[in-house]
Amino acid sequence: MTAVLQAHELGRRYGRRWALRDCTIEIPAGHVVGLVGPNGAGKTTLLKMAAGQLAPTSGSITVLGGLPAAGPAQLAKVGFVAQDTPVYAGLSVADHLRLGARLNPGWDAALARDRIAALGLDPAHKAGRLSGGQRAQLALTLGLAKRPEVLILDEPVASLDPLARREFLQGLMEAVVEHELSVLLSSHLVADLERTCDYLVVLVDSRVRVAGEADRLLSTHHRLTGPRRDPDRLPADQEIVSARHTERQSTFIVRTESPIHDPAWTVSRLSLEDLVLAYMEMPAEPRRAVLEVQR
Fold first, then answer.
1. pLDDT score recorded for residue 120
2. Which part of the chain is the ABC transporter domain (predicted)?
């Protein structure tokens, strides 16, 4: 299956400042991918280049095997919902649907009409009078009715209240199942990623710290707690992601494919949030730390 996104030494510079640099990643199609990392990691820049809104300064990127925004056929494959789910305040809901139909040759008018009706949105209402959750749902409807192969969403629910966030993500997951979409979703809200994403990418300082299927990542990462121990005394197949020490105790987060039999350790599973934070806090060149989990 063609990768939904491939990047090799990808970079984007604004004047003297690099927003993304030397980013290399391959993401398989057929997943709901959660892209997470601190502010300034390059998430938005990466997604805008994938959508064809920005050109690389260096390196290369392809989406579904083609160059972003290379022509009408490539543009039709990609739907994009930007931060703050922008819509036109002075246009009505119906105006937005008519605009979507004019701009997208593969527009699914029935999908858009039925989804707006199911959401209870009045087609005559101006977008500026809608709630934040309703504007987000309108933006999602525009992205879905384009009938793309991959839908890119950049922090789409960050400003929504918990109920609106849940409804947005529920609608997204229903569309994924119905239309067999690949999704790239960036978010700071790890709890939302746990509910929706089956593939995870942690991006820090433009570098992919870890990438892989969420279930596999969680099954191969463990927290070890026990008497204080030098990291070099851990077995070679235990790749250290993070290490914390008190005077008497050590706590490691490690990745390993092998069972852990050392009776000195208390072994516990990680939550997705634990995993993300461990890689976000990881030093740039940790001892035996893994940068990418193989598929």
1. 95
2. 5-230
pLDDT at 81: 92
Where does the chain show beta strands of DSSP type E?
3-14, 17-28, 32-36, 58-63, 78-81, 150-154, 182-186, 199-204, 207-213, 221-227, 239-245, 249-255, 266-269
Q: Which of 23, 56, 67 shows the shortest CA–CA distance to 42? A: 23
Looking at the chain, the domain(s) classified CATH 3.40.50.300 span: 3-205
201: left (phi over 0), alpha (psi -120 to 50) or beta: beta
Cα radius of gyration rounded to whole Å, the chain: 21
Asked if 223 contacts 267 with a C-beta cutoff of 8 angstroms, the reply is yes
The pLDDT of residue 293 is 37
- Write the DSSP symbol of residue 92: B
Class of domain 3-205: alpha beta
Residues pairing with 63 in the sheet: 5, 66
Q: How many CA atoms lie within 13 A of 284 on its CB side?
A: 2
| Confidence at residue 295, expressed as pLDDT on a 0 to 100 scale | 36
Report the pLDDT value the prediction gives residue 158, as an integer from 0 to 100: 83
**So what's the pLDDT on residue 206?**
82
Grouping H, G, I as helix, E, B as strand and the rest as coil, residue 175 is: helix
- 14 burial via Cβ count (<10 Å: 0-12, 13-18, 19+): exposed
Using DSSP bridges, classify how beta strands 3-14 and 17-28 pair: parallel, antiparallel or unpaired. Answer: antiparallel
Q: Which residue ranges in the chain fall short of pLDDT 70?
A: 1, 283-295
